[in-house]
Amino acid sequence: MIRNREEVVFNGDVKNISGLNKKGKFDILPKHANFISLIGQTLIARLVEGQERIFQVENGVLRVLSNKVEVYLGVKTGD
């Protein structure tokens, strides 16, 4: 699930997700360990059907918990 302050912008099954944080590029694969990160720039969701959805991210938080990914866009940070 990917949501901004107003609405859910994507909710569906994906094969994997790629993103960028301050340490560099990362990938979220099935059965990934629990994980939380501030994210920026671009988030790519590769759908089960083969398509890619690309989201421009100014700032946000990505959380992986129990094999589910939640992304909250437009999160203000103290940076």
Automatic annotation (TrEMBL):
Matching InterPro entries: ATP_synth_F1_dsu/esu_N, ATPsynth_dsu/esu_N
Keywords: ATP synthesis, CF(1)
Stored Gene3D superfamilies: F0F1 ATP synthase delta/epsilon subunit, N-terminal (2.60.15.10)
GO biological process, one term: proton motive force-driven ATP synthesis
Record SUPFAM superfamilies: Epsilon subunit of F1F0-ATP synthase N-terminal domain
Pfam families per UniProt: ATP-synt_DE_N
Entry annotated with the keyword Chaperone: no
Record's keyword annotation contains Lipid metabolism: no
Sequence ranges assigned to domain ATP synthase F1 complex delta/epsilon subunit N-terminal in this UniProt record: 5-71
Leader sequence segment: none
Top-rank taxon, per record: Bacteria
GO CC term (a single one): proton-transporting ATP synthase complex
UniProt-recorded name of the protein: ATP synthase F1 complex delta/epsilon subunit N-terminal domain-containing protein
